[in-house]
Specification:
This protein is an alpha+beta fold. It has 3 domains: 25-154, Rossmann fold (3-Layer(aba) Sandwich), CATH 3.40.50; 174-240, no CATH class; 370-592, Jelly Rolls, CATH 2.60.120. It is 24% helix and 28% strand. The protein has helices at residues 2-15, 66-69, 71-79, 105-117, 133-143, 175-198, 201-209, 216-226, 231-238, 244-247, 273-286, 290-295, 323-336, 428-431, and strands at 26-35, 41-49, 55-62, 83-88, 122-129, 149-155, 164-165, 168-169, 172-173, 262-269, 297-304, 348-352, 357-361, 370-378, 384-387, 396-401, 437-440, 448-452, 455-462, 468-476, 483-492, 511-516, 520-524, 529-535, 561-566, 574-579. The strands form 5 sheets. The protein has a 10-stranded mixed sheet with strand order 1-2-4-3-5-6-10-11-12-13, sandwiched between helices. Strands 14, 15, 16, 19, 22, 25 and 26 form a 7-stranded antiparallel sheet that branches. Strand 7 (164-165) and strand 8 form a beta hairpin.
Length: 596
């Protein structure tokens, strides 16, 4: 039921993207066939205005069933004067073929766009819609540069960029996201294989002969798995980050192939937010056309995956974004030629938490930011702090990582289970654990605004071949009973230098490593404290590291790791915090610089 509710949330989000119906009546054609270049038949429902004339096309490609996720969306759009195509991706719903998530969507996307452009009454202009996996299908299609694709509107795309891989962050496997999504996909995957097996008389008879009779369902399930149902999950686990398997969908080396303008919408607490932000930054610098570089837009709000705003932080009534209005304006501008102004707005619109307001920027990442170092230190009494200079009384702190007792997930960039909502949550209950270290400044006298990507640089040594470092940037409110996570990141230490070439830790050697905390825009208000929270697990968000150096799919033995965090003059550890320079003795905010 929780997974079904998640699908309903996605559908509701996208429904918001389409405005009030116009006067067009509509008609729908069900299960219309398009043939891909390899002969596989994909099926789509086509909704069109029941009127004379030609209309632009909006194509949405989904793994969730075209009549489960998208009927209301399609009907509303068709009434606004669009031909709407909602297609089951390869191997899902009514479409033929094998579902290999992400890997067929570039070629299938190209073929589907070009097929849609030739539909009766099409104007020849095609845009693409939908969120999450549907958002990824848009970007993958854009890489193939189909001639009739004009623009994309991408909500929270499930994409990989650099270290921000689809199922890994800093080398750590995102267990919650991968397993909850695999469970969501399972009913259709297993039903397709079940239909095939049910028509195989000899196989059914062999299963019926296996004793005991009472275990027939268990035998059937084992046969389904052996036949390949859900095999994509085994591939996700079997192939480590940085492997050739994952490099096929790493967008970092493909940015110049994106030639159409797009609007990219992400959330500070969305599992795919860092990859979306990194992609947009790269498009502004290296996109494949002038129009893609200068007319694409990025919108980031204080949302989790699904554009919900959950947690213990109040971001105010302005945190809501009128997606309904904006997507209408976007496609009317690019596909209908209406002067809505959508394609002429500043490149980035971000919600600055803390001060809780929207800010328009001509570039992302934010220029004129300086980096401030705040050094980790511990005094002789054991009090840990962040300071402008390295002034530690003790030279190190000890962090214990016990795989049998992981630190529980509490907020952050999460997906896709209602029992573990992403967002900004109070971290103080976690900070009472002995396996969580916290360093913070004293109350700051004036507000400090940070925007960009903070990072924590740590000098570490340990007694096992591997371990994880999980870091959260936190805003500590006056009174110390509320500490809200602002940004977070992870590093599986054997991937400290390279995703493609992991190296085990040598016992006793001190390494300096950097944990990227993802994009953020936040104002720490006067009287608050800036803090970092360090642990070695965040379960079930990330799989528990066995600390043995074995890959996720093979780890069978576990070790308790003792991680030493050094902070002496020769081995510094510090927070890199991008911030605006002081102005007339006060701390400026992003809102003081509305256009860069």
């Amino acid at each position: 039921m929780q997974l079904l509710r998640l699908l309903a949330v996605f559908a509701a989000i996208i429904v918001l993207a389409f405005g009030d119906p116009s006067d067009y009546k509509l008609r729908a054609e069900r299960s219309v066939v398009s043939i891909m270049r390899d002969g596989v038949k994909l099926r789509a429902d086509v909704y069109r205005p029941d009127s004379e004339g030609s209309f632009p096309v909006l194509l949405g490609r989904t793994p969730y069933g075209k009549q489960i996720c998208c009927v209301v969306i399609a009907e509303r759009l068709a009434r606004r004067g669009y031909i709407v195509v909602i297609q089951d991706v390869r191997g899902r719903g009514e479409s033929e073929g094998n579902f290999d998530p992400f890997f067929d969507d570039e070629s299938d996307g190209f073929d589907s766009v070009e097929w849609a452009a030739q539909l009766p009454k099409s104007s020849g202009k095609v845009g693409m819609i939908l969120s999450s996996y549907g958002g990824a299908t848009q970007i993958l299609a854009a890489l193939a540069a189909p001639p009739h694709l004009v623009s994309i509107f991408v909500l929270e795309p499930a994409i990989a960029f650099g270290i921000h891989q689809i199922f890994f962050e800093g080398g750590a496997f995102r267990q919650l996201w991968s397993e909850s999504w695999a469970a969501l996909l399972a009913p259709d995957s297993f039903a397709r294989e079940m239909r095939r097996l049910a028509s195989d008389r000899d196989l059914l008879e062999r299963l019926m002969r296996v004793p005991p009779l009472g275990n027939f369902m268990e035998h059937l399930w084992q046969q389904l798995v052996a036949a390949g149902a859900g095999s994509y999950f085994r591939e996700w686990v079997r192939n480590p980050p940085g492997s050739p398997y994952w490099e096929r969908v790493n967008l970092a080396n493909r940015v110049s192939d994106i030639k159409v303008p797009g609007c990219y919408i992400a959330g500070w607490y969305d599992v795919f937010g860092p990859a979306t932000e990194a992609l947009f930054d790269a498009i502004q610098r290296r996109g494949g056309s002038e129009i893609a570089r200068t007319r694409s837009q990025l919108i980031i709000g204080p949302w989790n995956h699904g554009m919900g705003n959950q947690g213990d932080a109040d971001f105010g009534k302005d945190a809501a974004f009128d997606v309904e209005r904006y997507q209408n304006e976007w496609f009317d501008y690019w596909l209908k030629g209406k002067k809505t102004g959508a394609g002429e707005k500043p490149a980035a619109r971000v919600f600055a938490t803390g001060e809780n307001r929207w800010v328009d920027l001509t570039r992302w990442r934010v220029p004129r930011m300086k980096t401030r170092r705040l050094y980790l230190s511990t005094d002789v009494s054991g009090t840990r702090s962040l300071n402008a200079s390295n002034q530690s009384g003790n030279s190190h702190d000890l962090l214990v990582s016990d795989p049998a007792a992981p630190v529980p997930t509490t907020g952050g960039k999460l997906c896709c289970h209602a029992g573990f909502p992403g967002g900004a949550y109070n971290q103080t209950p976690l900070q009472r654990r002995p396996d969580v270290l916290v360093y913070d400044t004293g109350p700051i006298p004036t507000a400090i605004t940070s925007a960009g990507e903070p990072a924590l640089v740590l000098s570490v040594s340990l007694d096992t071949p591997d371990a994880d470092l999980i870091v959260k940037l936190i805003d500590v409110f006056p009174g110390s009973e509320k500490a809200i996570n602002i940004a977070d990141g992870a590093l599986r230490l054997r991937y400290r230098d390279s995703m493609a070439l992991p190296q085990p830790i040598q016992t006793g050697q001190i390494y300096q490593v950097k944990i990227l905390l993802g994009p953020m825009a936040h104002t720490f208000l006067a009287g608050h404290r800036i803090g970092v929270q360090i642990s070695s697990s965040d379960f079930p968000n990330y799989s528990v590291n066995s600390n043995s150096g074995e890959e996720v799919s093979q780890a069978a033995r576990t070790n308790v790791a003792h991680i030493t965090i050094h902070h002496d003059p020769e081995h510094e550890s510090y927070l890199e915090l991008p911030h605006l320079p002081p102005h007339n003795g006060t701390g400026p905010t992003l809102a003081d610089f509305p256009l860069w």
